[in-house]
Amino acid sequence: MKYKHEFNWALKLTAVSALWLALQYFTGLHSTHIHLHPLLGMLWYILALIVIFLSIKNLRDQSLEGELYFWSGVQSGTMVAVISLPMHLVLYLLYYSTVGSIFFESAISYSLELGIDREEVEAFFNLPVLLIRETMGIIASGFIISLLSSVFLKTDH
Predict the structure, then answer these.
(1) At 143, which helix (H) or strand (E)?
(2) What are the b/e assignments for 22-56, b being 16+ CB within 10 Å?
(3) CA–CA gap between residue 92 and residue 103 (Å, rounded)
């Protein structure tokens, strides 16, 4: 399997994301503390950075015998994000259509309290739009994180 390394790390990234969703749910970031979600929800990117960084580091140290070209790291890290995308979408679909559905109600109510137009809020906080935003976010953040990680992990040639 050509992308075995990336697939294994994509599974780890998805598992970390599942734990992050559970943490958000149990701490009330999707309900009682929805006002903190826009800020604290961004902490997922730190977790993604750690997983992708470790993936590229592991690739360099284990598979490439200590040698890593910049673009090899970018490609591998980006592939981790791309391969994890279908797993993330299934995870989000399951979560937000079951226990996490309270997120949409909470986010809509909070946004209305802030004075945002109802139509605009309802168009933004729904499952199909969330899945599109997550798709773009995972691919873009995976690429950017891979770029940054590869800068630090590449070996000089």
Answers:
(1) helix 127-153
(2) eebbeeebbbeebeebeeeeeebeeebbebbbebb
(3) 12
pLDDT of the chain, 157 residues: tens digit per residue: 689 999 999 999 999 999 999 999 999 999 999 999 999 999 999 999 999 999 999 999 998 888 999 999 999 999 999 999 999 999 999 999 999 889 999 999 999 999 999 999 999 999 999 999 999 999 999 999 999 999 999 987 6
Contacts of 37 (CB under 8 A, 6+ apart): 24, 29, 30, 103, 107
Give me the count of residues in the chain: 157
How many H helices and E strands in the chain? 7, 0
66: helix, coil or strand? coil
Could you tell me which of 136, 3, 143 has the C-alpha nearest to residue 74?
A: 143
